Structures are given as C-alpha cells and as structure tokens.
TrEMBL record:
Record's compositionally biased regions (Acidic residues): 105-131
Keywords, alphabetical: Signal
Bias kind Basic and acidic residues: ranges: 78-88
Signal peptide: 1-22
Region (Disordered): 78-143
Name of the protein described by the UniProt record: PepSY domain-containing protein
UniProt keyword annotation of Signal present: yes
Length: 143
C-alpha cells in the first residue's frame, strides 16, 4: 500500500515539471497582455491541445493561439467591436518575438535593443575575426 502511494507520488512529481514548463508561455502572454492594458483575459485549451488566450482592451478583442510545448504563437488577431479584423498593432505585437524557456519571457530579436539573448546586432559575439575578406595578407607568419 505504501509503495503504491509512493509510486503514484513519484509519477506525479515526474510529470509536474513538464506541465509547469508547458504553462510558462501562457503565463508570460497573460502578463504581457495585462501590462498592455488588456482586461477580461481568459485562457482555454483547444481541441488540438493549443492554448487560446482572449482579452479585451477598449473596443478591441485580441485572440492569441499558441503551442504550449514550444511557446510559438500560431495566431495573433485583433478584432473591433463589430468583429472586423484590425490588421496592424501599434503596440503589443508578437511579430518577431520568440519565447525563451530559460528566462521565461518573450524576446524580440528584431528590435533596436540588443538583449542578452539576441543573436544579432552590434553586441553580437561575431567579431569577424574569422572573416577572410578585408585588408591584410591573410597569412599567419611568425617571423
């Protein structure tokens, strides 16, 4: 009896980190929506296992669908009160953003700021020291 409870407890503990990690992208999106002034935020699982997040700000409704395993945003729609699609966002857009599981946040590699996890920009690790173009003979003589 004790061993079966222990086994069930260990199985639940083994599954828990995966579940927590899967929910992290959803939590990050909800926090960002609230920081952009969205209210009435709701989260529901779709039939395909994706997460559908809806929220309202003023006369607009936003719907975000993401893959909870990867954090990839599959859809990000804005609609006005009449249900018409609003094509562009002035803020709060997810375009060019990716979820970083290590930091638990979204990052925009296309912005002008060079974040620690950006792979491009002026603070990039690539200093062109391995580049064979440019001036110099290209030889490595130790005279």
């Amino acid at each position: 009896m004790f061993l079966s409870r222990l086994g069930a407890g260990l199985a639940a503990a083994a599954l828990a980190p995966g579940l927590a990690r899967a929910e992290a992208p959803v939590d990050a999106v909800v926090r960002q929506l609230e920081s952009f002034g969205y209210r009435d935020v709701s989260v529901r699982r779709t039939l395909l296992g994706r997460m559908r997040i809806t929220a309202r700000r003023g006369d607009t409704e936003r719907e975000i669908v993401l893959d909870p395993r990867t954090g990839e945003i599959l859809r990000d729609l804005l609609r006005d009160r009449r249900g018409r699609h609003i094509p562009e966002l002035s803020d709060g857009s997810s375009a060019g953003r990716s979820y970083d599981k290590d930091s638990g946040s979204y990052d925009d590699d296309r912005d002008d700021r060079d974040d620690d996890d950006d792979h491009s920009g002026s603070d990039s690790d690539d200093d062109d020291s391995d580049d064979s173009s440019g001036s110099g003979s290209g030889s490595d003589d130790d005279d």
